[in-house]
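[agent] plan:
  1. take the single chain provided in the ticket
  2. run structure prediction with default settings
  3. attach structure tokens to the ticket
  4. add a short note for the reviewer (M.T.)
[agent] executing step 1
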Amino acid sequence: MHRPAETRRRGSYTANLLGNIRGHLAGLQGYDVMALELIQNADDAGAEEVAFDITGEGLAVRNSGEFTYCGDLDSSPCSRRARFGYDCDYHRIVDVGSGGKLLQSENIGRFGIGFLSTYQVCDHPEIRSAGIRLTLIPESGEWTVEEPYDESGGTTLFLPWARDPASATRLALRVSHVGSAHIARIVDDITRVLRQSLLFLRHVRRAE
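[agent] step 2 finished; step 3 output follows
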């Protein structure tokens, strides 16, 4: 009996990034959780000050610490891994869920995983530090980098409000868009967390 010749094809597959984010986000619900995660990440960076600025455009979180950057996000693995045992902060943030900072025992935040809490309020978070601006685009599994970028010291995380309820990210994450009522709640929750968090931090001494 004649059998057709076997053929083999090689392809590639990618993880469902938004599905991964949605899975982690389920355990990170609450604007208070988001605020605490961002404060702890600032503390991990050795920042002594952190400030939340809520505007009509989005939430800007500034701290006096600075992201580590190896100089090339296209390189794999990160060039800092061989020397320090873990990747630079920018590599870890684009490798969502890597939890690289957990390798540093002094850290109390869940860098990477905790950062995913920001997707409650934005579709495309921006990080501005170490002379570059990184924008994450999860619906396409991409990121963009603008460098050199003039950031006057420290780190700014900018979270543009997710206003569109029908955006690809809102629909995939199954979370609400951000309206005026949500922003008022965000203000209240951040204010409460700022009052309570300083007792548990190692470096941050001022939060506003």
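[agent] step 4 note for reviewer: Confidence is low (pLDDT under 50) at residues 97-111.
[agent] ticket updated
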